[in-house]
Each structure stands twice: as C-alpha cells, then as structure tokens.
C-alpha cells in the first residue's frame, strides 16, 4: 500500500509539472505570434503614411515651382514658340536643297538641334501654366502698349512673312544661301531682343536661363553668318 501510494503521488506530481510546462510553452508561443503579427501591421500604416506624405510634398513643391512665373514669362514663351518654329522651318527648307555650301547647311543643322528641344520646353511651360500656345489679342495689345510697337510684329521680332518664306523655298544655290543667312540674322536679332526683355522682367528661373542661352548662342551664330555672308 505504501509503495502504491508513493507511486500515485509521483505520477500526480509529474502530471502537474507537465501541464504547467505546456501552459507556459503555449502562452509563450501565443505571445510570440501576437508580437510577430502586430509589429508588421503597425509598421505598414506608418510606412504608407510616410510615402504618401513624401509624394504630396514633392507634388506640392513641383506645383509651387511651376507657379512662380509672371506675365513676362508667359509672353516670352508665347512669342518665342512660333519664332523658334519658323527658324526650324527655315532651316528645313535650306537642308532640303542641293548644292548648298556645307558651312551653311552645318549652321542650319546647328540651329535645328538647338531650337527643337527649346520648343518642347516652351510648350511644356505653357501647358503647366494653363496658358494658350499663342498670344491672345489682349496680350498683343498690352505688349504693343508697353513697348510702343506698331501692329507689324514682323518688323519687331525678325519673323519672315509668308511671302518671304515662299521666296526662300523657291531659291536655289548661292541665292538660297544668301537669303537664308540674311533672313536668319534678322530672325536671331529679334530673338535676342525678346530674350533680353525676359532676362530683365522674367521671374521663372528656367525661362530666364533659356533667354540667357539664346542671347549667347544666337549672337555667336550672327557673327558666324556675318562671316559667311562676307564670303559670298
């Protein structure tokens, strides 16, 4: 009896210890699972909120930067856009001709390569500002009033008339070279005048920087065209 009682007592103790160990292990596992589940869940909203905040800040900064412009910037873009397009068209006309001095065709190619990317920039600015690609009649009147200009815009900015463009298109050989160089010289001088106005009155940094580039590069091209004309 004593032996049997001792055995039962020992078995009871083992059972208690086993149940205690299981309970402790189960509790530990549960806590581990809970912690593992809660930590990532808590981190995800925080990371997402941070990303959204960063995107909003970037978008806001970009919008603010594009908004920092004035009427002079808009006028510069609206006037320089058709001006550049005509310069590219003039260059294309010359490049389509045969028997043209390579020095003149190289210049025409140089003008195209410089002004094509600027056309894209000018277009992008006007779109971002919500402005029309061309100056309105109200804008034209305002500009003429400020500058004391007459209604013949071609004389102001060096733009060629439709008749001039037709003549250039029909010209060949040396005549075409001379006409191109003389017309592009006047065209460049008009662009430089517009660029200088932007440098003085503009506010948008990228537009002012483009204007400074136009003054520098197109004055150099005027000098080159003057040299080429002397050789004709």
Automatic annotation (TrEMBL):
Transmembrane segments: none annotated. PROSITE patterns: PROKAR_LIPOPROTEIN (PS51257). It comes from the Bacteria. PANTHER family: SLL0788 PROTEIN (PTHR36933:SF1). This is DUF305 domain-containing protein. It comes from Arthrobacter echini.
């Amino acid at each position: 009896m004593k032996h049997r009682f001792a055995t039962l007592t020992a078995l009871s103790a083992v059972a208690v210890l086993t149940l205690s160990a299981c309970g402790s292990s189960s509790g530990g596992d549960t806590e581990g699972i809970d912690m593992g589940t809660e930590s990532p869940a808590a981190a995800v909203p925080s990371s997402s909120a941070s990303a959204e905040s960063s995107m909003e800040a970037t978008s806001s900064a970009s919008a603010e930067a594009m908004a920092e412009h004035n009427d002079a910037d808009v006028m510069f873009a609206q006037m320089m856009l058709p001006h550049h397009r005509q310069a590219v068209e003039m260059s294309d006309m010359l490049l389509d001709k045969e028997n043209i001095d390579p020095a003149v065709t190289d210049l025409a190619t140089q003008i195209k390569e410089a002004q094509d990317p600027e056309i894209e920039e000018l277009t992008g600015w006007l779109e971002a500002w919500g402005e029309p690609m061309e100056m309105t009649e109200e804008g034209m009147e305002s500009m003429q009033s400020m500058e004391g200009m007459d209604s013949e815009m071609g004389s102001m900015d060096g733009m060629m008339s439709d008749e001039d463009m037709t003549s250039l298109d029909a010209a060949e050989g040396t005549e075409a070279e001379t006409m191109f160089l003389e017309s592009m010289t006047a065209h460049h001088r008009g662009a430089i005048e517009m660029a200088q106005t932007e440098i003085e009155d503009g506010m948008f940094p990228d537009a002012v920087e483009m204007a400074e580039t136009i003054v520098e590069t197109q004055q150099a091209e005027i000098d080159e065209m003057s040299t080429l004309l002397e050789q004709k």
